[in-house]
Amino acid sequence: MNLGLIGAGLVLGIAAVGSAIGIGIAGQSVIGAWKKCYIANKPAPMTLLAFGGAPLTQTFYGYILGFIFMMPAAADNPNKGPLYLAIGLASGLAMAFSAISQGRAGAAGADATGETGKGFVNYMMIVGICETVAIFAMVLSMISL
């Protein structure tokens, strides 16, 4: 059993779970903000969809790290399996928590934008800062391979 290949799969799986949770959190607020707009007979801003979909990117990062970088490295170096397993777990968790935090920030941004019609760019900057954690986890993990 090659533990490195397991690590490559886990980084994607864990990141995807975080994405799903983050999308669920932000998505609920996006739908609620649209509902408030409809009740007030205001147009529902489609830009709010950006808040709901932002946590999906962590799944892509998990895929890039796991299957494009870790899988070939683990297949070539099965003796480093525990190292790759640890990298996969740690990176997957970092990406998952980044996505969950991004979902929470996106939920607040969607609610505020839907209510006031203002501040979209400001709120999206915070969502982007949450994204940066996942990018750092992916890049630093790739360097360590």
Question: What would your notes on this structure say?
Answer:
- By secondary structure, the protein is mainly alpha-helical.
- It has one domain (3-144): Up-down Bundle (Four Helix Bundle (Hemerythrin (Met), subunit A)).
- The chain has helices spanning 3-39, 49-53, 57-76, 81-116, 120-144.
- It starts with a helix and ends with a helix.
What is the strand and helix layout of this fold?
Blueprint (H helix, E strand, L loop, with lengths): L2 H37 L9 H5 L3 H20 L4 H36 L3 H25 L1
Helix pairs in contact: 1-3, 1-4, 3-4, 3-5, 4-5
- Termini separation (Å)? 19 Å
CATH topology description: Four Helix Bundle (Hemerythrin (Met), subunit A)
Low-confidence stretches: none
**Classification by helices and strands:** mainly alpha
Total domains: 1
What's the tally of helices?
Answer: 5
- In oligomeric terms, what are we looking at? single chain
Shape: elongated
Rg result: 18 Å
CATH class: Mainly Alpha
Q: In percent, how helical is the residue content?
A: over 70%
Strand content: under 5%
Compute the number of strand runs. 0
Query: Mean of the pLDDT scores?
Result: 95
What is the element string, with H for helices and E for strands?
Answer: HHHHH
Largest sheet: none
- Give the name of the CATH architecture: Up-down Bundle
CATH superfamily: lithium bound rotor ring of v- atpase
